[in-house]
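hey so i finally got around to running the thing on that chain from the lab meeting. sorry it took forever, my laptop kept dying and i had to restart like 3 times. anyway pasting the input first so we r on the same page abt which one it is
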Amino acid sequence: MSSSSNAGIAKRARTKAEADFATWLMMAKLGGFDDLPSSARRFLTNYQTRLETMSEAESTALAVREIYSAYYSEMGGVGAAPEPKARTPTTESKLVRSQRPPGPQPGQSAARQSTRPMTRKSLPALLILASMVALVVAFGFLAQ
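ok and heres what got predicted. didnt touch it at all, straight out
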């Protein structure tokens, strides 16, 4: 098996391990520990035992590493699961940054500058007030 397919397996196994561990931990906290598969219960029990001797972050990292290794083998990875590469923030390149509207023009009057933000803020408040009045009127007629 090529190293590129092993790298693909490693990536999928790592992603699945992180997601499953978070899901299992949440289910256990919500009282669903007994509903989890036996392997999940075993990983969580080991995680809980390690919390007595190490920090939560260290125990979590070790638990995810154990799950990742198991998944890597199950998915057909050859040999020991490779150490995951350090994650780089990829969301930075995918985000579209919104630009701030340009500041006030030097030629605008002070009165125009001061009323402009009030119009933006008062419109939602006005809509909320109108909705509340409509509800009071509607329920007032229904109550009679």
